[in-house]
Amino acid sequence: MSVNTISKEEIIKKAVDAAVEAQIRDDVCARSAMYGLKQVFDFIPEELVTASLSLAGGCGSASGSCGAYCAGLLAVGLKYNSTMEQEKTNPDLIETGCRKFTEYRDRFIKEMGTVMCPELHKKVFGRSYILTDPAQHEEFMYLKGHAEKCAEVVASAVRMACEMILESD
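Above: the chain sequence. Below: its structure as tokens.
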């Protein structure tokens, strides 16, 4: 999508709307976030949308870092990180990527309070769930409004990633 044809606000809205729709439909936070970002950024390969399923539920349903946060982080990395080949000729290039992922992390923490899936559960659902525990995982998946509440986190992650990616355009 060309940034010149529509406003940055419209790009962000399109990405967020697509991500939220996918989250409510499929309930896969990481893939939904990456899908929304892919709708507006051509540099994101379809294979990354597919692979991002593995990040859901705190990375592999392991109750680690939020999958939506990780998807946004990967998109920011695709935009700002240099290749290993580029770094061989200019080792200072790695610093740009490091600054950007730190900035994304800090923005996410400032807004959401944490990047950790169980801590986000506390914020959104009032308690944490350990997704490696089958009983807690099942309880989490059947919470009333589960997909919609997770969609709020997905929307925030996508919006922040879009804002950062569009800053350079």
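Residues 146-167 form the longest helix (22 residues).
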